[in-house]
Design goal:
single chain, alpha/beta, Spore Coat Polysaccharide Biosynthesis Protein SpsA, Chain A, Aspartate Aminotransferase, domain 1, Aspartate Aminotransferase, domain 2, 23 strands, about 40% helix
Length: about 675
């Protein structure tokens, strides 16, 4: 019976690249591991099973210089790498050791091998359940077991982590040893830079002796705890339980402030620690994560960008033709003219158009035009209008000014203090407040800038009253339709209410996922764009206008705004029915195609988190809002509510006394802006 230790090692660690060759007491980490492992009396051979990628050539060279064999195999299919390696050396019994465990104890290895032989099982370990410090993990298995796993499982997770298929299947006999105490929270492996500090401290303490045993390390931890403090905040075995997207987001927070580019897409806004975070592909109303798992998006559909669904074939085909023909040139793209003409056709009150690529940009352009046209500085605002200085300056004299405008907690750090008082917030449907604001700032307000509607519609002819106030005071009225545009009408929501602004802006749905935004307006005001400087190289690229033209063509043919309004209205009605079924109180809000609900309960945020947690398990991206698209067919909606129903039942139990915190598997989702790093 040939017993072979296969040491899983590679240079491509995402959290600590090249860790297996990192120097500890003047030696590569892999050398320390092999030296300690060589003291085992039960092992017949030690082999390093490395990845076939070129970056591991150096690892192989080091291993072979130490007179150990190094085999090469798949980077991601580690199970197959192990199988082929074991097969190549004629192993009857395989001892799995990972290359990030330099404190591996040969006496413990021998104990596991002997126990495996005595127990006559397929698989033996000291990790099920885990009681030893992380970094002393030992798994012993028959060659036949690893061969079966390699031939039978098609799970990417099983193949990446080698032994889950064996451990989780009833068709394999298994046994294990446990320590008398649960020490599994102690972290002696090397996954993060902080781990390397701890392990280095241990080796330096015992140097030049490399062959101290694990109980000596345990005593050292008791007598000198400061040596082990560097990694105390890191959770054990995250690599085995975290998805690829979760791992990547953890990396992202080290190199990207806040972790990503958009607050609305932070995992913390949905399911902290458990949200897949990144996608590999999207189509219709489905999204696939980096591990290939498929989800139905019953959430915010790309932050409201894809009313025709992800990857609409006609829009994508038009874009691909543009890419083939050329996206950028010294010349201008003709599509910008065609798109401007189409937007003016849809809004006859408008005469001219300027384009950009994002909502925040086009908001700033509209404000710049208004200020240039009027010669005034102040802007009265209602709603959310982006991230630029002009808007965030609202919070310079009070960081609470924007709390009622979608995102609470926004800090104006970095915004010039000289902008204090230039942006003045007012509340929707409160005409008296706006009248007083204009009175208090008579002759100083360049524009009234507002969303036509977000969570509620106008009451008592509110929009017309705003229009009249603007006209009477020579103030430019700007409607922000970045979110609301093309959802209830073919164009702006203004068309539904019959109130015409002076300027209007569009983004999000205009390009069905491609970057394009537009400011349309009356000639007398738009010409002011020539009296200031508004310019950007990539506003002249071709993809955005091309996508928008085709998107508008498809929308017009299919009357998509009617479809998504019907879908969203139906979803909102079903939420109410579900709440009534379980005697729960909810408040619904938003445009029909941008609808949501909130539990009327102190535990509202906990319930939202619970829904996201449980629906994710069922293959849905879901919380308490749905941005409807044409791909949300009835069968999709029916499936969503079939899975949501029992969760509402659980929430009813929580309202009746069950502690919802006992059901949550991680922290609560965030309710607003929070600094992450």
């Amino acid at each position: 019976m040939k017993v072979v230790a296969l040491v899983q090692a590679r240079m491509g660690s995402t959290r600590l690249p090249g860790k297996v060759l990192r120097a500890i007491v003047g030696k590569p980490m892999i050398e320390l591991l092999l030296a300690r492992l060589s003291q085992s009396s039960e092992l017949d051979e030690i082999v390093v099973a490395a990845s076939e990628e070129v970056k591991n050539d150096k690892l192989q060279s080091v291993v072979e210089s130490l007179n150990y064999k190094c085999t090469r195999g798949s980077e991601k299919n580690v199970l197959n790498r192990f199988y082929e390696s074991a097969k190549s050396v004629g192993a009857d019994v395989i001892v799995r050791i990972t290359g990030d465990c330099p404190l591996v104890d040969p006496t413990l290895v021998d104990e596991c091998i002997r126990s495996y032989k005595d127990s006559d099982v397929d698989y033996f370990s000291n990790i099920d359940p885990a009681t030893y410090p992380d970094g002393l993990d030992i798994e012993v298995m028959s060659f036949e077991s690893i061969e079966r796993a390699n031939n039978e499982t098609d799970s990417e997770f099983d193949r990446e982590h080698v032994t889950p298929y064996i451990r989780n299947s009833d068709s394999f006999s298994k046994s294990s040893i446990q320590y008398v105490k649960d020490l599994s929270t102690q972290r002696w492996s090397v996954d993060e830079p902080e781990d390397l500090i701890v392990v280095t401290n241990v080796f330096e303490h015992f140097s030049p002796n490399l062959y101290f045993d694990w109980k000596q390390v345990l005593e050292l931890r008791r007598s000198q705890p400061k040596l082990f403090q560097a990694n105390r905040q890191i959770k054990n075995n995250e690599g085995a339980t975290m998805g690829t997207g979760q791992k990547l987001y953890k990396r992202a927070k080290k190199v990207i402030p806040g972790g990503n580019m958009l607050l609305s897409k932070r995992p913390e806004m949905y399911l902290p620690e458990n949200w897949p975070a990144y996608f590999s592909k999207s189509k219709g109303c489905k999204v696939w994560d980096l591990d290939g798992k498929e989800y139905i998006d019953m959430s915010i559909m790309g932050i409201g960008t894809n009313t025709l669904g992800y990857g609409h074939p006609e829009v994508d085909e038009a874009v691909m033709k543009t890419i083939k023909d050329g996206n950028m040139s010294t010349f201008n793209c003709p599509e910008e003219v065609y798109l401007a003409e189409k937007l003016i056709e849809l809004h006859p009150w408008a005469d001219m158009v300027r384009f950009a690529r994002a909502g925040g940009e086009i908001n700033s352009i509209a404000v710049r035009i208004a200020r240039a046209s009027t010669g005034r500085d102040k802007i009265a605002i209602c709603g959310y209008h982006g991230w630029h200085d002009w808007y965030l300056s609202t919070n310079l004299n009070s960081d609470k000014n924007l709390d009622g405008h979608l995102l609470p907690g926004l800090q104006p750090n970095g915004v010039p203090r000289g902008l204090t008082g230039t942006t003045l917030p007012f509340n929707y449907n409160d005409i008296e407040q706006l009248e007083q604001l204009i009175k208090d700032n008579k002759g100083e307000i360049a524009a009234i800038k507002m969303e036509v509607s977000r969570n509620e519609g106008p009451k008592d002819n509110y929009l017309q009253k705003v229009r009249d106030l603007a006209t009477e005071n020579n103030i430019i009225l700007i409607f922000d339709e970045c979110t609301s545009g093309f959802r209830e009408t073919f164009g702006g929501l203004q068309k539904k209410y019959g109130v015409e602004p002076d300027l209007a802006i569009f983004a999000k749905a205009l390009g069905n996922g491609y970057a394009i935004s537009a400011c349309i307006g009356r000639q007398e005001f738009m010409q002011a764009a020539q009296q200031t400087f508004i310019s950007s190289t990539f506003w002249t690229e071709r993809i955005g206008p091309t996508a928008a033209l085709k998107t508008l063509e498809v929308m017009e043919r299919e009357k998509s705004w009617d479809t998504i309004t019907q879908i969203g209205g139906g979803i909102s009605k079903q939420w109410k029915n579900l709440a009534n079924k379980y005697d729960l109180n909810i408040t619904t809000w938003g445009l029909p195609a941008l609808s949501g609900f909130t539990f009327d309960s102190p535990n509202s945020l906990s319930y939202k988190t619970l829904i996201t947690q449980e629906m994710l398990k069922k293959g849905y991206l879901a919380a308490n809002s749905v941005y409807a698209c044409t791909e949300h067919k009835q069968e999709i909606v029916d499936g969503y509510f079939a899975e949501l129903d029992p969760i509402f039942g659980t929430i009813k139990q929580c309202e009746d006394g069950l502690d919802v915190s006992t059901l949550l598997e991680g922290p609560l989702c965030h309710s607003g802006f929070k600094r992450l790093n």
